[in-house]
Amino acid sequence: MSNSLRSVRVWGYAEVREALMNVYSEPITLAKKVRRKDVVRYLVRLDKAYETLNKVFEVLNALPNPNVLSPFYAELLAISGITDYKSTYLRLRGFKKVVRKLWRHYRIRVKLALTSEEAKKDLREFIGRSLSIVRRLNKDLKKLEVAVNELRKLPCIDFTNLKVVVSGMPQVGKSTLVGRISTSKPEVSPFPFTTKNIISGHLQVNHMRVQVFDTPGILDRPISELNEIEKRALVAIKFLADVVIYLIDPRPSSYYTVEQQIDLLQMIKAMFSDKPVLVAINKIDETSEERLTEVLSMVKKIHNDEVYKISALTGVGVDALLEWVKSRCFEFYKSRHQLVA
């Protein structure tokens, strides 16, 4: 997302009204040589009021144009309740043009005013009509404020590079693994759902750059019952993942049973059957060999490919996992090169 989102301000009706009232009442100092000072003061106030109104529409410059908005961002906005982003954005852009026409119209009227009272009346009309527009837009502005806050949380995404999404239930070690293999250093906590947003890091594979995403944990339950945080993780798999790394915590003391974790794996494999999935049994440094053998046997019943055994905390087995990512990386760039050719 654009860096301008980090500093953009979304105005509300009350803020705009206060700012315009200040413009209307603030003293205006003019040079001595200016003629018809009483009228010109209102012309200056009119221009300042228009400058203030333009700040309301600056959010349009920061937000992505809906016509080129990635489905990934559109889906995340929908999860946040903004299902009509395009119409909201276009409505704001339309009213921006209306305000500009009003300003041009009243600027001419103020210039042609014969008295200061006439100029004052025109200024008041411009401010009144503009505020009426902003009042009608207030709900849209609140929606766009939600959109800005949602998009601010997201990392910059390069859709041309290989993207690896680390997935699994809460507390299986996703953030620890992402922190070990990439430039990202997500917060690691002993409490579930510490990761609430999608976090990005980078991994260099020879001359190729791989983007690695840490995602919120997903619980083993119907999609209709997933909360907003869990849905973000599924959206990341759906729209970002070129490959998925699915982590399993094999310990008897894990937050969620191995059966629950395998059920979730089965759901992800069914939902995203077109995506290669690497399954890694994590935390082997805290698990007996007997238990590992038992869990591996359970996983193999639904996952025919190789299952990796790692400790994201100590790094054991991670090199073998990275070799798998490396092979996928070469395949990805080879296919891209063939498409370009």
Task: Give your account of this protein's structure.
The structure is a single chain. Helix content is 53%, strand content 10%. It contains 11 helices and 6 strands. It has a 6-stranded mixed beta sheet with strand order 2-3-1-4-5-6, sandwiched between helices. Helix 1 (13-25) runs antiparallel to helix 6 (116-152), helix 2 packs antiparallel against helix 5 (85-112) and helix 4 (71-79) packs antiparallel against helix 8.
How many discrete domains?
2
Number of strands: 6
Q: Briefly, what CATH class of the largest domain?
A: Alpha Beta
CATH topology of the largest domain: Rossmann fold
> The biggest beta sheet, please?
6 strands, mixed
Average residue pLDDT: 87
What structural category characterises the helix and strand content?
A: alpha/beta
Shape: elongated
Give keywords:
single chain; 341 residues; Four Helix Bundle (Hemerythrin (Met), subunit A); Rossmann fold; 11 helices; 6 strands
Summarize the structure.
The protein has 341 residues and is α/β, with parallel strands linked by helices.
